[in-house]
Amino acid sequence: MSPWANAQEKGVAPVLKNETIAEEELMPVTAEVRLEEEKTAEQARLFLYTPYTKLSAPPGETINYSIDIVNDTQELKNPDISVKGIPSGWEWELKSGNYIINQMAVMPNDKKSFNLQVTIPHRVNRGSYRFVVSAGEEAELPLTITVTSQGTFKTEFNTTQPNMQGTSTSNFNFNATLNNKTAETQLYALMATAPRGWNVLFRVAGKQATSAQVEPNATENISIEITPPGNVEAGTYSIPVQATTGTTSDELELEVVVTGSYDLELTTPRGLLSSDITAGDTKRIDLVIRNTGSAELKDIKLSSSKPAEWEVSFEPVSIELLAAGETENVQAVVRASRKAIPGDYALNMSANTPETNESISFRMTVKTPMLWGWIGVGIILLVTAVILYLFRKFGRR
Q1: What's the fold here for domain 46-147?
Q2: What does CATH list as the number for 155-258?
Q3: pLDDT of residue 279
Q4: What is the pTM of this model?
Q5: Closest CA to 129 of 88, 94, 87
């Protein structure tokens, strides 16, 4: 019996062979398309991305994350952006451009970026800290910060050059930084412990000050000007300076090396810089050399500038060492030229060291020798006697 007859006998519509094949081929194709659509729908989602999910930093450091929010769906997304689980006392901020954000809209198949800034406090324990950045309920980005050292609550008062050298007339200018490593604004009193007669000035922002206000986790530049007294002795001087509040403080040790000033004076015991001499004669002039600086003077040499055919020598010729404030007596031996005519002559005498020198101009007045004076008197008397004789002899006539 044929299939058609058999179907009619059973009251069932016959199914053609070609029709059965078409339906069997259609059913698996439809299921496969539906499966692909479901798979694509599962893959299309919203997620957060940053390349650095675990960072290490010291206390007080500020970390900036650049985070992308990626929308792989076919819908506009506008999720709430938040940070969960960040430790208490840590400061954080979500920004896009110059604005603080709480939500961010992202077009389908697009991405946007925002920044997360996290500041680690100074008072924090060493270790790893985990928190999560969320985009609504759809996406989370776990982040970890490892604090590399134990945090502190302190002040740091530092300088890159704690030692300076100069003379007693120098001004010593130090540049220091005052770092407030606390979570509170601090008003620091600025003080110095200097030897008697020394002057210490503090300057903040170029103005003289006795205190400085520094914000939390901020640094202030402090200028310190130290002036020694004029009569200070050469040596090394330590000057502690402090920045202090009621809860925190720090001290900076400054060192000033005074090499002393170099200066000397050349004069006579009475300060008189003139004398007289007879041509061809020799005269001794007393001189005084005084060290008026604050450092010792070594190898002081004496020299002179004199008129032609004059001679000047010194006894002693040089001084090996002259301490600060000390004096030394010297004699200048002056011999005038035999041909010197009466009048004033200038002698320039100098005391020289490698560090300093001093010169004086000494006036010498040359007088006529006594022998010529008597000869002149004799000539005058002789002329007078001749005139009288002639007057008596020829006057009677």
Answers
A1: Immunoglobulin-like (2.60.40)
A2: 2.60.40.10
A3: 86
A4: 0.49
A5: 87
